[in-house]
Amino acid sequence: MRKLFRCAVIGAALAVSVTGCGKGGDKIVLGFSQIGAESEWRTANTESIKSAAKDEGIDLKFSDAQQKQENQLKAIRSFIAQKVDAIAFSPVVTSGWEAVLKEAKDANIPVFITDRAVDVQDDSMWVTVMGSDFTEEGRRAARWLQEYAAKQNWKGTINVVELQGTVGSAPAIERKKGFEEVMKSTPNFKTIRSQTGEFTRAKGKEVMEAFLKAEGKKINVLFAHNDDMAIGAIQAIEEYGLKPGKDITIVSIDAVKGAFEAMIAGKLNCSVECSPLLGPQLMQAVKDYKAGKTIPKRIVTNETIFPAEVAAKEFPNRKY
Amino acid sequence: MAGLKLKNIMGKIAGFFTAASRSGLLWPVIFFGLILLVNALINPGFFDIEIKDGRLSGSLIDIMNRSSYIILLAIGMTFVVATAGIDISVGAVVAISAAVSAYLIGGTLVVENGVQQYVSFMPMPVAIIAALLIATALGMWNGLLISRMGLQPIIATLILMVAGRGIAQLITSGQIITIYYKPFFFIGGGYLFGIPFSIYIVAAVLAVVMFLKKRTALGLFIQSVGINKTATRFAGINSSNIILWVYAFSGFCAGIVGLLVCSNNKSADGNNAGYNMELDAILAVVLGGTSLAGGKFYIMGSVIGGLIIQSLTTTIFSIKEIKPEANLVVKAVIVFVVCLIQSESFRKKVAGVIFLREKKSL
Fold first, then answer.
1. Which of A147, A251, A278, B20 has CA atoms 20 to 30 A from the CA of B87?
2. B108 touches chain A (CB under 8 A)
3. For B301-346, how does the pLDDT look when each residue is reduced to its tens digit (9 = 90+)?
4. Count of the separate structural domains present in chain B
5. Do the domain assignments include residue B295?
6. Interchain CB contact of B155 with A (< 8 Å)
7. Inter-chain CB proximity B269 and A200 less than 8 Å
8. Can you list the alpha helix ranges (DSSP code H) found in chain B?
9. In chain B, whose CA is at the least distance from the CA of A229?
10. Span A108-137, pLDDT tens digits
11. Helix axes B277-287 and B327-342, enclosed angle (nearest 10)
């Protein structure tokens, strides 16, 4: 009797889940595993994905990993078990994804990787890696600087100091590489100091203080790998008695709200966008894939640069 | 006559050295001096102090100002270590204190007719007192777990170390709260008579602590708890309460640091505020000559230990040739050497080898 009852329950549950599937019709189900909510940038990223899914009529199953890989693995496995139509995730670290990616492949579920890359040899494991091109961001910062220098008619040696991101992180390595690549064409720019500010305001400020004490007024330009370090450095420059944005020209990357406030106040000269708003592009890629179109292995987010002149106009449109 | 005078002076110098080494300060002071000297050799303007807009400005001032965080934590930590304990939660408490004060002051930019208005969500004193009270309560929580529940100090404080950052994140909703309320910036970034205000805070805490140590029996009580808790209790001293309050004080110190960090950066970052600071604080205590086994403790030693660590960091930032990838290695090697030379048994061994060689050559 008991057995029969259990059978009945399972049967009912199956029936419900089958009708559940049927009700959705041909609505695409996308499972997305987010890293967490560690910064304004990340929150904007989440918002963009959620709202784009809604606009495109995609059924989004969202899971927050709270900065832990084990949570992401768990989430992806549960997406596979639920037989979603597609899986997307922002990997918190680069390594350790082989097993779960293989499980997804075996289950014939396409995987879209967003924002950061994974360190897996076999690229048939995923459809595309979508996100910012950090090297290009470095190049854009450099190009803007060269144009600005030409406009301002700068002559002679120009001393640059650099605040690097966290040692060994992809954005730090690639932004530095891109910047140096372009700067080669203008040898009068000399990078006299380069240290890590660990992507934080506190370290950015502390390192800039040390730079100022060592080089003083010789510093003409600051290139910071993210806005937060630039914001910290701006405080250090003000406390040193110089005018950020005037005595020292500052260019940084990300274009977060704080950077716009600094630009409007004339303390930051340019911020290169590193956009978290990749929701629409992701949804488009998922739809295209389902429609049988070929998707490039690498999709770069639509990004631009924001010189201080446009900051006030752009500020109300900013979402992060 | 001149010889006698020279002998006199030599005797005085020797006397100074024996006194310094007895107080445990000799080696820390020598190392601090050496680091400053190396800096001065690399960067000729190192000792220069200029006056800019009525403020003193220079590398030495930076080191003093920046080291205030480590020194305050190290002062609290010294008492904890003296009771044979350890507090690895201070970094997380810094983050919580910063988050609480930032949350209460609020992170909204209010601009009316193009002029920034300074508004705070709660009055500033409320925010400051709340942050300090919460930090002290968290320290007491550690103290209760250790003195009443009998937990190992490293385990008890590990709980808060891990949970604390989560709590800070909850308070800030995982975001960096930017503060625009100008009066708050004075605590960690202001200047009084040309000197950074944080240095006054360190001086005030240090003065109170030194008074308690020198003029009351509290220092002796703490020391005796560290040497033998049971014997201390039999001597009629309430060991448990001393342990409780020592951790509460460590939490209080972390609370002050949280305010300083938050005010100096004009923002609270739950992820990064006070990150790894507990390790620097413990290192400062050890460099200052206090043994992790508890017992005798040197507050001034910890202060100089803090100065050593900060001057090392500043030195690494101001030497061009050190690549960022090598920062930690350079720091580790120097700390290793300092710790070796601090060790009395190591010094004796080295001295023994040299002495033996001399004997042989005779």
1. B20
2. no
3. 999 999 999 998 888 888 888 888 888 888 888 888 888 887 778 8
4. 1
5. yes
6. no
7. yes
8. 2-22, 26-42, 59-82, 90-105, 124-147, 153-172, 185-189, 197-215, 218-227, 229-234, 239-265, 277-287, 299-318, 327-342, 344-361
9. B265
10. 999 999 988 788 888 888 899 998 888 999
11. 30
Residue A304's Cβ-count burial label (10 Å; 0-12, 13-18, 19+) is exposed
Q: Which of B240, B244, B281, B273 is nearest to B139 (CA)?
A: B244
Are B176 and A201 an interchain contact pair (Cβ–Cβ within 8 Å)? yes
**d(CA B110, nearest CA chain A) in Å:** 12
Nearest by CB: B57 against A164, A240, A258: A240
CB contacts of A201 in chain B (<8 Å) are 176, 265-267, 269
pLDDT over threshold 70, residue A3: no
Return the CATH architecture of domain A134-274. Answer: 3-Layer(aba) Sandwich (3.40)
Please indicate if any CB of chain B lies within 8 Å of the CB of A138: no
Q: Return the CATH number of the domain spanning residue range A27-132+276-302.
A: 3.40.50.2300
CATH number at residue B205: 1.10.3470
Residue B27 lies in a domain: no
Q: For residue A40, which residues of chain B lie inside 8 Å, CB to CB?
A: 175-176
In a domain, B2, yes or no: no
Range of the domain at B196: 34-44+56-342
Q: How far is A268 from chain B (nearest CA, A)?
A: 17
Residue with tokens 């200052």: B288
pLDDT, tens digit, 9 for 90 and up, residues B245-280: 999 999 999 999 999 999 998 888 887 888 888 999
| Location of each CATH 3.40.50.2300 domain in chain A | 27-132+276-302, 134-274
